[in-house]
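One chain is below:
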Amino acid sequence: MFLNCHSFHSLRYGTLSVQELVRQADELGIKELVLTDINTVTAIYDFKKECEKFGIKPIAGIEVRKENRLLYIAIAKEFSGIGEVNKMLTAHNCDGVELSETAPEFEKVFIIYPLNNIPESLKENEFIGIREEELNFLIRQKFKDKTHKMVVLHPVTFSTKKEYNLHRILRAIDNNTILSKLNEDDICRKSEYFTTELNLIKSFVHYPEIINNTTEILAECRFDFTYKERGSTENKNKKYYLKSREEDIVLLNKLAFEGLKKRYGDDETAKKRVEKELKVIGDLNFSAYFLITWDIVQHSNEMGFMHVGRGSGANSIVSYCLGITDICPLELDLYFERFLNLNRTAPPDFDLDWSWQDRDAMLEYIFKKYGKEYVAFCGTNVEFKYKSIFREVGKAFGLPKEELDNLAGKSMETHEMNSVVKLVHQYGKLLEKFPNQRSMHACGILISEEPITNYTALEMPPKGFPIVQFDMYVAEDIGLEKFDILSQRGLGTINDTVKLIKKTQGIDVDIRDTTLSKNEPVCNEYLAVGKTIGCFYIESPAMRGLLRRLKCEDYITLVAASSIIRPGVAQSGMMREYIFRHNHPDQFEYFHPIFEKHLSDTYGIMVYQEDVLKIAQYFGGLSLGDGDILRRAMSGKGRSLSALQKVKTHFFKSCIAKGHSIELTTEAYRQIESFAGYSFCKAHSASYAVESYQSLYLKVYYPLEFMVSVINNQGGFYRTEVYIHEAKMSGGNIQPPCVNSSDFETSLHEKNIYLGLMLLQNLETKVAHEIVLERQQNGNYRSLEDFIRRVAIGIESVQTLIFIGAFRFTGKGKNELLVEARLLLINFKPENRGLMLIEEPPQEYRLPELKRDPFEDAFDELEIIGFPVSSTPFDLLETKYRGSVFVKDLLKNHKKQVKMLAYLISRKHVPTKKGTMYFGTWIDVNGDYFDTAHFPDSLKEYDFQGGGCYLLLGTVEVDYHFPTITIHKMAKMPMIPDPRYAYDSKKRYDIHQQVKEDVSMTSRKPYPQEHEIGLPRQKFS
């Protein structure tokens, strides 16, 4: 009887989760249920599974609405009917095709019209829905004649009075209005909750044909759909790259052996590994997946793009031979079984990275090559978040903006309670976990064998690539496995640096040749001292500190560092233990000979996920496939506890059979359990390490080109100011923007680095581009007047350019130029811009010389681009004191108290058992970096006061070659007053508040202390 049920995937309308909807139906003994969410099929696959748990027959449909007006309800007779409606909705969502008032010709779909939208004639598959409260309309002749085509319409949207109010709030949010302004058409009727089927039958007792029509529709419909079977490699992805499985296998073998020749020559070990992998890939029917990935990479190479293939795919020698990855599995002893084994049923997992500038071009190729009907992004459901809940619900109750800001910006405990705020809390809590909107998955692309609209309607988000209406978990469940196409700024930096080196020095750097950069001696010197600002993955304060503690001087150590820096490994205490063993290899014994034999590279510590496989295999006697099940069961990716218990039992039995004692086995399993869920795939770490080396090589040998590229790719861990400082430390002469020398992006002219116009916060992007284009087409600007005649620009933008010094080529002072600009623009007519260029030469103005304070330029720069260029932050201090100790002296001052003056770069919040602490990163007056630790006790009295320079008093602690200062006291040092407001005392200190700092917040458990780690440092007896 229930042909029209909504879940909360009817966004900002329904109030019931799929689970709650089905549970309520089961409690009332309902045996058939139709899910018809508004313009979406997001929940139908979860709905089917949930219904089948309770023995309810699931039926799928869609409620079609246009501008919040119900047109009709479409109910699929069978699964293909869903596809028919999907195609119609996709045409509307993606191509702008209008939804018609009446349903198109559907073959496998029943249509139910509401009373207020009945077409003149009804087709065989079309009916009219009549609500219980509308039965009295049937006395009218126009309806009485149509009862033979009517069905019971009892929509379900909510379940309780509180939920009805929540529905109204959702409708207010959707309409961006307040509750009191909602009208009847905006909200559902108060009767839209479950009742018993017996009650409905009683209500329609005088209209048996209406009841019969309803039951016949329910009987005729079914939702037959085959989910991916557990243990099967069959899926709904594109089946073949060519025309058949056999052709794919032949092509993959050919490409793999061609690549083998290039990568390894006649190496017999490599050949055997390739043959072994190809057999597994063929047996699992994954040849097409490899070939499609290869094809995407081939196109990238043809376009001259740089990519990185990472993830567990780098464990495969076939992917290395195909050029998908650049990691040699033999060099690093990478297990193919971590990537693919006969126990694995999901396709392999390649993560492909491109520069953020090239990714869209790659996506366009994929959509064009494989057909837009077959390709789409995974969707994702964006839930109501804390801030948005209070803001949206508060707005629905009519709270003013100031109060909304207060609710969204503060914790619940600090909210000023009144009757309205109590309601906001009450209904806000109900909204937690509710989907608010659908969005695009960050990287997951589906390439289907059948048209994707067979499974889902598509939507078109602002990004411009269609998305499916469900997330990656549903996609996997139904057998659509994603390809991960990602972007990152690190690759953009490497790409741009190589191009810039060619432009400035005429040198071609083949950065893809990893033998060039990997383990290069000077790069290793930089690594060992953490001189890695700007380099992918190895520039954060924590990573630079780790590199110094390890005195990292080679590729293998960098691979390990890339893994142990991960939060989980550090959380388990393994990072601390690894640092100890790396620095004191003679102060521990291996737990067991097998750990020594197979984990000697990592001092007997399981650092990588592959290490779990090694111990499971060689210590526990499990097959590599079972070892991988153990790893996955512990990794928290949805594996069941029962599966874990089964493998654990198997592990213990196998260990005892091999002669290990129960105590020894228990300790080995404890270590596996501690590390498996936290560890990082070694191939992933190796991929990161290669890219880190590539960027470090460019930083070492082409530092100015590299830092300019970092700035233009909008940096990484730090703000732009830090990268500009690094460029200066590398020998660059930093020049403020200039209309004759600067481009939109930052540019390099010999050693002069001209900051780009894009850095000017108040200059429109369009104007910035126009300035550069006009100069390129018609030559340099001769004067301010010449500039104003040639560029469409207003007085505010001209003033910004004058204040930043963009007209310094004229030789005139800023004050003189400001007066000149106002005189030029006061009577200037834009329509005469082109004519005036021809009519007369620029005029020369004679104005009185106006003196400026030497530091006015620095304050202009601070205001316009966020940091000073013509001076350092230290130059702007009232004090001339610069500290008694400098960074170069720290290693000699272990356990000594020092006083330093430093400029704050960044600080990181770190939870401890005693409260919040911070790690700070600073530069001294010489421009060198150092780090500080601020414990809760010192922060109570000496907390951070925003960006700027501080006087620091603390004790130097040298921890494995890395000095940190534990701060006892600190004070922010006052800057000189802003000289531009010498006669306005109120504004003399305004700009000081804009001095920046980077604050990174983390919310994790405190790392364990050394005595809490519990890893044996002696042989187990």
Q: What stands out?
A: Residues 245-264 form the longest helix (20 residues). The longest strand covers residues 897-912. The chain has a mean pLDDT of 89.
